[in-house]
Write a structure and sequence with these properties.
This protein is mostly helical. Among the domains are: 62 residues; 48 residues; 52 residues. 57% of the residues lie in helices and 3% in strands. It contains 14 helices and two strands; from the N terminus they run E-E-H-H-H-H-H-H-H-H-H-H-H-H-H-H. The protein has a two-stranded antiparallel ribbon. The protein is flat and about 95 Å long. About 3% of the residues have low confidence.
Length: 244
Amino acid sequence: MSETTRIDGRRVNREERRGEMIAALKELVAVEGPDVTCQRFADHIGRSDRYIAVHCGSWGDLRVAAGLPRKRSSGYSAEYLIQRLLDAEKEIDGPVSKRRFSSITGISTSTCDRVFGSWVAFRQAAGLSEVASPGKARRYSRELLLKLMREQLPILGRNMTRNQFSTAVGISTATIDQLGNWTELRSELGLTGRGKKKSKSFAEKLGIELFDEAPPLIDFSELPASLTDAYAASAQLRKGKRRV
């Protein structure tokens, strides 16, 4: 009889789920190497580390079941990191920032610094150009900048500002200015103005939900005559009290 357990009130087959995770881990290792972390694997399958523990006992048990050492090595090799950097640059067809490299590969920026000493040294070891300083814009071309802007349009919207774009892609505003005026860059994409950050209304800041349409007014003429007479009498009584 297969072993089952309850997760969020649902009965699931632990052996089935365990088999699925073993297969998924083997696939991920084939692409990214044996030093995959538990968090990276959890992100890959869209589950939590608790989910992994419920079905496999521990991350070490799952690694062993997938034919890997119980513990991953103390870090990535320099050769592996260099290959991942080259693959990342090929994927986006251009220079990749430190933050974007981490986002694409799941490898922390601190790991790169630990192995190579700095991001600049890492890029140099991979045979790539040194990271540009604010006064040196040759790392990016105007064409590449426009391409990155097009990629961010569905995410940031047509009103994206220079600062929003700079933060999203990891390019300094000084580098952007070296390559062109922000308004002119936007106009090449068919956008007008400099863009603006959407601000919350006073009501939204207070958490007040506004109606899309004005609420319907109450038609008191449809109330029963007895009820309207009672309202009129009550109003007359209050009026008389105020006079006294």
